[in-house]
Amino acid sequence: MSEIPLVQLLTPEGERVTHPEYESTLGKDEIFGMHRDMTIIRRLCNEATSLQRQGQLALWAPLQGQEAAQIGAGRALQPMDFTFPSYREHGIAWCRGIPPEKWLRLFRAVDHGGWDPQQYRHSVPTIVIGNQALNAVGYAMGVQRDGAEEATMVFFGDGATSEGDVNEAFVWAGSFDAPIVFFVQNNQWAISEPTVRQSKIPLYRRAEGFGFPGIRVDGNDVLAVHEVTKRALAHAREGGGPTLIEAFTYRMGAHTTSDDPTRYRIDADVEVWKHRDPLERVKAYLVRQHQVPASEFDATSAEADALAAKLREDVLAMDSPDPLSIFEYAYADVHPLIEEGKRDMIELGVGGGAH
Amino acid sequence: MAQMTMAKALNEGLRRALEDNPKVLLMGEDIGKLGGVFRVTDGLQKDFGEDRIIDSPLAESGIVGTSVGLAIRGYRPVCEIQFDGFVYPAFDQIVSQVAKLHSRSHGVYKMALVIRIPFGGQIGAIEHHSESPEGYFAHTAGLRVVSPTTPNDAYWMIQQAITHDDPIIFCEPKCRYWEKGEVDLDRPPRGLFDAHVAREGTDVTVIAYGPSVRTAVRAAEAASAEGRSVEVIDARSIAPLDFPPMVASVQKTGRLVVVAEAPANASVASEVVARLTEECFYSLRAPALRVTGYHTPYPPSRVEEEYLPNIDRILDAVDRVMGFES
């Protein structure tokens, strides 16, 4: 994979290996549960790609290849922890219990958000690269001032590590010992640019310069990601300060449905990563170590298919918002230009649920 | 009633806001021990502690971006940007997150934060210390922009801004920080978004805000010596603009001059002219004029007097609208 040390507890072949500092205590049921999570989000993601190809979504940002990174991290969270996603964190949204059709509202262009961020403890998507890192650190500073035992976790990609906001977030987190976990999914590609364009050193080593620990984990190993994240979150909750986790993974698909990766990367590289598939290794382990029968995996697949069918149904039923709704939350308080715009639209006979 | 400078009035207003609500906190560069480069936060860290009066690392996007997160958590952060010309690193956070998160979250997130910016010229400073960036923010839906021009307004408007649930860009005319005035500690003079007739008159309406209000009033005084009665309106709120009193004034005078330090092109001054032309078309006896900074980068301050809307330029505009023959 690389010469750089990374935490791995399950090899691509599905062999359990030991690490001097990290050991997974997960039992068969929990591991099977994570395999189920990964199967479902992969299936839902494929369905979303199809929906986009059929003109039902404006765009889709697939997560294929990053299932272990997201499920491992997502399942390490405790209910009161708060998470800040970018726009590809469908696996985290799944772990936070957000119904899949809500993730797709943004991509069907009927909403800029899609869910109640306080209800699910998961912020609305951030599309401007890296903005959410600073917002998350501020949130964590609030947690710190409240004296609450909660962790904040923020997700971004390798490209975002070049943004000023992410670097400022590192400065703030270090300076104030904010209870935060920075989770960078290094999927090797920022659209067409490889990670070497973003950084001369491995990303996890950036943390040292900001005064807190950084660690690289095999992002395709759900056990290792889970363990490393769990410990970093506990560290934050206990007042130990920030951690940067680099989940070393690979974006198997395109950046978004508007992208064409054949223009900038070769199939041979993708083939190498196919052998490191995050789902296959867990399945191999469960079969070999715990004798999980094929019927159980089949049941998971059937469940995933049913959820995908439901997702399709929900998306097709998703109407455009009432045009008048654009005025509703532009401001918290009364604003003359909002009132004027609303009047104008009503006089033109637009909106009012007639859509 | 108490006599104090605008800087002190802001300090007292912030102090009262901090006392009233434990969720209020201040963040900015050098605002702690130093008390801010203009001493607006003088003594506050000593009394409210380092957790509430936060000396931030030197990065403006960081100040605003982390304040967004604090607001999500239920705090009411007041950010200090040290000078107008240094707000641009925070522009992305202000426009992409501060202005939009209430809408994106369907009202779940209150972006109850105030961004204080000492703005405008007339202080003989070096580059980047005299700019008027309010137009960028006035243009952005989701934000509100206000500017006090007296110590009394400063004392009350900062408190009103902090208790308001929308994000507010609070533009402080730094050339007036050290001017003294009466502050009524018991009752606010008016609402945060209300314009105010600073000087009554009948011949010409001059609308100004921030540092230009004082210049406009002085021009009105000079005009009165020549027998011309100039009404000066202090807009106070730059976004939204409080048009009804402006409309009433222009309907009375029939003549309009708008004064601002920011260049006129695509500006707040232009918006005032456009709207009042629309609303007062049949009352206007002359085309509305704008007296503003020229369309150049802010000049070396040795020539800022010539660049800015000074008394002579305002009087010239008053002459032109008075002398207009249709």
Question: Topology, please?
Answer:
The complex is a heterodimer of chains A (355) and B (326).
Chain A: H1 28-53, H2 67-74, E1 82-84, H3 90-95, H4 100-107, H5 117-120, H6 131-146, E2 152-157, H7 164-176, E3 180-186, E4 189-190, E5 193-194, H8 195-198, H9 206-210, E6 214-218, H10 222-237, E7 243-248, H11 267-274, H12 278-290, H13 294-316, H14 336-347
Parallel strand pairs in A: 1-2, 2-3, 3-7, 6-7
Antiparallel strand pairs in A: 4-5
Chain B: E1 2-5, H1 6-20, E2 24-28, H2 44-48, E3 53-55, H3 60-72, E4 76-80, H4 91-98, H5 101-104, E5 114-119, H6 134-138, E6 144-146, H7 151-163, E7 168-173, E8 180-183, E9 196-199, E10 204-208, H8 212-225, E11 230-234, E12 237-239, H9 243-253, E13 256-259, H10 268-279, E14 289-291, H11 304-307, H12 311-323
Parallel strand pairs in B: 2-3, 2-4, 4-5, 5-7, 6-7, 10-11, 10-13, 13-14
Antiparallel strand pairs in B: 1-8, 6-12, 9-11
Structure description:
The complex is a heterodimer of chains A (355) and B (326). Chain A has two domains: 28-318, Thiamin diphosphate (ThDP)-binding fold, Pyr/PP domains (Rossmann fold); 322-355, no CATH class. The model of chain A has no long low-confidence stretch (mean pLDDT 96). Chain A has helices spanning 28-53, 67-74, 90-95, 100-107, 117-120, 131-146, 164-176, 195-198, 206-210, 222-237, 267-274, 278-290, 294-316, 336-347, and strands at residues 82-84, 152-157, 180-186, 189-190, 193-194, 214-218, 243-248. In chain A, the strands form two sheets. In chain A, strands 1-2-3-7-6 form a five-stranded parallel β-sheet, sandwiched between helices. The termini of chain A are far apart. Chain A is α/β, with parallel strands linked by helices. In chain A, α10 links the parallel β6 and β7. Chain B has helices at 6-20, 44-48, 60-72, 91-98, 101-104, 134-138, 151-163, 212-225, 243-253, 268-279, 304-307, 311-323, and strands spanning 2-5, 24-28, 53-55, 76-80, 114-119, 144-146, 168-173, 180-183, 196-199, 204-208, 230-234, 237-239, 256-259, 289-291. In chain B, the strands form three sheets. Chain B has a seven-stranded mixed β-sheet, with helices on both faces. A five-stranded mixed β-sheet of chain B has the order 9-11-10-13-14, with helices on both faces. In chain B, α3 packs parallel to α4 (91-98) and α8 (212-225) crosses α12 (311-323). The N and C termini of chain B lie far apart (49 Å). Classes of the chains: A alpha/beta (355), B alpha/beta (326). The A-B interface holds A 112-113, 116-118, 123-124, 126, 128, 131, 133-143, 145-146, 164-165, 168-169, 171-172, 175, 328-333, 335-337 and B 25, 51, 56-57, 59, 61-62, 64-75, 77, 89, 92-93, 96-97, 100-112, 141-142, 144, 164-166, 240, 243.
